[in-house]
Amino acid sequence: MTLITEVRLRRILDSRGNPTVEAEVRTESGGFGRGAAPSGASTGEYEAIERPASEAITSARELAVPRIEGQVYAGDQRGVDTALRAADGTSDLSEIGANSAVAISMAAAKAAADVLGTPLYQHLGGAFRGREFPVPLGNVIGGGEHATDATHIQEFLAVPTGAPSVSDAVFANAAVHDEVHEILTERGIAAAKGDEGAWAPSIDDSEAFEIMDEAVESVADDVGFEIGFGLDVAGAELYDGGVYHYGDETKSPEEQVAYIAELIEEYDLRYVEDPLDEDDFENFAELTQRVGDRTLICGDDLFVTNTDRLQRGIDIDAANSILIKPNQIGTLSDTFDAIELAVKNGYDPVVSHRSGETEDTTIAHLAVATDAPFIKTGAVGGERTAKLNELIRIEANA
Ligand code: PGA
Ligand code: ZN
């Protein structure tokens, strides 16, 4: 294996027009890798800390780069990530910033794959990977923190469970996105797009459920395979002062559990992410006990890709699925540990983008490398299609 000889960091644009961190890693033998940090808007309270891009770069140049250049082998991912943590010295990466850490961690993995001459998913997952593909969850209507004056529930996601290939699934989600627009137009409802490219109409949640139901059924008829739908409630964003706020209406935690269980029943929801607040492990467990045998209850802000929080959830059966966002925890090694712990305990990992993204395609490779059953990376829009098209390429070349 070859030594990392150079780590370069710079500010680049993300999809919201904000600065984010890009890292480039070069090795002794001419290997090259580039990675860029995504950025959340409805971030969990327990996530690793993202610093302003220029501060994160200055700090990482001073503290982390000298511990990596000429010190660590590109293929030694644990070595790279251990050096990043040692350089930072905090548990939440608040010194060098999780944005610098994740960009360097991903760039090093890509440089190692380049040296080996293998696709990234194969370097990360080994020779036997590349045969299982994730079902893409496509965000087609959304609001919450991703758009103003739209739905309270953050994301309504198409779930093409019956698709015969990842390519069919990706096109089905795009078709649902298009169908939603047609239905909105028929109803005379104007809609801009939110941060992830989902339609963000000024409608209430109940109308969004109606439209989703109609859209997935219509596209399923066209394509001839099953398409359901699911939600990211982003419950922590609705929760304030002990109740969930839906505009002027409020629901107690018990009412919220009953409401979500009813929605699952009524719409046969395949997937529900963060139905409750990020601190409410108990009501997560209550809901999972009620409906966990028929749908996925996924923890995003609840677990933040963190093995300690995931273990706490496993201990009380708080969910049956975990959202996996490398920048929530800061390194690929920590991300793999979370996926491994999840799979060992029967939790389905869902590899995920952030609302602020770049053209980086690492998460497509991560999902294939770990045989993750699902990936959530939008339905349309350049920074989303970067990952979806990469999945199509991986499938075509596997
Ligand atoms: P974020 O939202 O990237 O804005 O945090 C995505 C999500 O909640 O899944
Ligand atoms: Zn979420």
Question: How would you sum up this structure, described in words?
Answer:
- It is a single chain.
- With 398 residues, this protein is α/β, with parallel strands linked by helices.
- 43% of the residues lie in helices and 19% in strands.
- It has an 8-stranded mixed beta barrel, surrounded by 6 helices. It has a 3-stranded antiparallel β-sheet with strand order 1-2-3. It has a 3-stranded antiparallel β-sheet with strand order 9-10-11.
- Strand 6 and strand 7 form a beta hairpin.
- The chain starts with a strand and ends with a helix.
- The relative contact order is 0.15.
Report the bound ligands by name, code or SMILES: 2-phosphoglycolic acid, zinc ion
> In percent, how much strand structure appears in the residues?
15-25%
Helix content: 40-55%
The profile of the biggest β sheet is: 8 strands, mixed, barrel
Number of helices: 15
Strand order of the largest sheet: 4-5-8-12-13-14-15-16
Mean pLDDT across all amino acids:
98
Radius of gyration: 20 Å
Strand segment tally: 16
End-to-end distance: 25 Å
- Structural class of the secondary elements? alpha/beta
- The geometry reads as globular
Low-confidence spans: none
Main attributes?
single chain; 398 residues; alpha/beta; 8-stranded mixed barrel; 3-stranded antiparallel sheet; 15 helices; 43% helix; 19% strand; globular; binds 2-phosphoglycolic acid; binds zinc ion
